[in-house]
Amino acid sequence: MKKLNSEFKTAFISEAGAALTNNDYFAFVELDNYACYVIADGITDLAQSESAQKAVESIILHFQQQPSLTRRTLSACLQNANRDLVEISGREMLKASITMIVTDYEAMRFASAGNTRFRLYRDGRLNTKSQDMSLSQELVEQDEITPNVLSRHEERHNLYSYLGQEQEFRPYISGKLKLINGDIAVLYTRGIWENLDEADLDDIFAETSDDPREPLDNMEDMLLSKQPPDLDNYTIAAIFINKIFTDPNRERRRKRRIKIAVIVLIVLLIIGIIVYILYSRHQDKAAEMNLRTDSTIACIQDNNYIRAREEATKALKQAESLKDKEKVRQLNAYLRLIESVIAADDAYQNQNFDDAYQGYQTALERSRYADKLGEAYISRRLGGTEDHLTVADFIQMGDKAMEQGELAQAEVYYLRAKAFAAQIHAASSKVQAQAALDKLYEAKEKQKNEQEKKDQQRLSGDISDLITQGDTLSQFGDFELAEQKYLAARSLAAAHYDADGKKEALAALDKLDQARGQAAAAAQKEAEQYAADYTAAAALAGQGDAAFANADYTGAAAGYNAALARYTALSDAAQSAILSAKLQNVAVRQQELDRQSANAAAVTARAGEFYAQKEYTAAKQTYLKARQLYLALGNQAKADEIGTILDRIDADAAIMAALPQ
Fold it and tell me: Which N-terminal residues, if any, form the signal peptide (predicted)?
């Protein structure tokens, strides 16, 4: 239909020139909707070659199978023709320069590979032309040679693309060229462009009729008139496009397209308005999100983390609704930082400095992933927490020293804690240190009272021991030594301001004076008793024997001494010798008794130490042992005294048991 309603006239000239055979080839096919024109120039050293003919026939054949004006169609035709030439090559490698034109009677495309050429004239002037695929053409493009020497340059046949190329065959395919009535398309081979200048061709086609044969004849006459010595094969074809196809439905299609375009435009406008509104809302949300993010950062910089958490939470919800992954990540990092700081601040305010320290450490780590926001504040709070922990460490060391009974060292630690708390202006820590000091001083006062009580008990025991010794000496008539014991007891009581002990010593001294008086009275009667001394001496010796038999060594010694004194006074040497031997035996036994007394006293002293240390069970067991020892010694007074102490131990133990643990 298109071919019938258009006018395309084609004419061509193809001659062997000075050669024996013509290796150029031109052919075309005009279908109802498409037309294809192909010119080829065989590339060979042989006198006769089928390269050009095979190439043109292959292209036209492939075009007829699937005619179209698309780049893909032209490329497929050329690629298939190139493959055909490569496959049918035998002794001779078939190669050709090729140029083809495809048209739908309204527009055209041209494609080329090699150095055959295409020119399009419009209104008598050159409109479009092809470019050779040769090294010479590249030199022209690089301004290394001028275009007017291209037809004579030695590299004009050095082609980088041609039909029959085994690898990297890349032909040139033009864009779509819109045709108008009167256009002239010209195809020609190297036999033409090597011998005629482009200006000559332009002049020939500048003014012509609607018959393509006329300019071709003029061109051939000009070529032959120049009588080139080595005129190669030459071929030229002219397609006069006197009338292009005009589609009768084009106006209706144009109007329909305009309507569709208007509808599409309106739809696009509506969509654009909707998109703009959505975009504006999105931008508003994004702006509000960014504003809250900036507010979050400002609040963190102002150390207002409660407000920062509110702003960050709102900004995060907006970022999630906007699906802004980067903002969600950033705001989550800010929130983790804020939560850590708030938790650490709460722990700090509650004086839980261990948790606060860990919280600030966590916040400092999270600050690295939150643009290092709040780093200065966190570091400052971390330093303050470390100061409080230092005070707490001093107090803890003081407590440990107190537990070990090292009150002096504990006081040093508490004083250090108080001084450091004052240095860092930590009022709460200073109060804790002062409370620890007060507790320490109470413990020291209690320890002092207990020590004084122990000392008083020990002093009372020493005074009682001296008086007891004096009493014993007084009983045996050793008044001088007894007086010394009583005086020593008085001096010890006076030195320690023990009024009761001093009073007891003075009473003992008065008692001693009475004993002395009684001894003096007895001495006065001694003469009167001289006569009865023999009888009394024997009786005394008998008493001594009886006391000795009963382990009453003191009584035995007293009896023996009394008897010895009487016998000595009576000058009875034999009896005196016997009594002296007995007294020696008594002395030996007395030493053993003294050792046992000392052992009883030592056990009593050890029991007193246990009692002073409030080890009531050990004290009670030890006092019971001491009481048995005194009973064995026959010292009922000491045994009774220990009995009193045992009652007191039971009372104290009951009090301690009742106290809360």
Answer: none
Residue with tokens 């006459």: 221
The H or E element spanning position 106 is: none
Phi/psi for 194 (5° steps) reads -80, -20
Domains of the chain: 7-247 (3.60.40.10), 280-373 (no CATH), 391-524 (no CATH), 532-661 (1.25.40)
CA distances from 635 to 66, 389, 555, 593, 624 (A): 146, 63, 13, 11, 14
Residue 432, amino acid? Q
Largest alpha-carbon pair distance within the chain?
Answer: 207
User: Per-residue DSSP letters for 430-442?
Assistant: HHHHHHHHHHHHH
368 three-class SS:
coil
> What DSSP line would sit under 527-593, residue for residue?
HHHHHHHHHHHHHHHHHHHHHHHTT-HHHHHHHHHHHHHHHHHTT-HHHHHHHHHHHHHHHHHHHHH
Task: Scan for tokens 């050159």, then name that residue.
Answer: 126
Cβ contacts of 73-77, under 8 Å, gap ≥ 24:
73/102, 74/100, 74/102, 74/109, 74/111, 74/173, 75/111, 75/171, 75/173
Calculate the CA dihedral of residues 171, 176, 177, 179 and round it to 10 degrees: 130
CA atoms in the 13 A half-sphere facing the CB of 151: 14
Give me Rg for the CA atoms of the chain: 70
List, for residues 420-433, the tens digit of each pLDDT value: 666 665 566 666 66
Beta strands in 23-72 (DSSP E): 24-30, 35-42
- Two tokens at 500? 């009761």
> Please, where are the H alpha helices in 226-249?
none
Distance CA 585, CA 580 (A): 9
CB burial of 522-534 (b: ≥16 within 10 Å; e: otherwise) equals eeeeeeeeeeebe
Q: List, for residues 152-192, the tens digit of each pLDDT value.
A: 888 888 899 999 998 889 999 999 999 999 999 999 999 99
Residue pair 67/109 in contact (Cβ under 8 Å)? The answer is no
> What pTM, to 2 d.p., does this model score?
0.45
pLDDT digits (tens, 9 = 90+) for 48-73: 888 999 999 999 999 999 999 999 99
Q: What is the pLDDT of residues 489-530, one digit of tens each?
A: 778 777 776 777 767 767 877 777 777 777 777 767 765 665
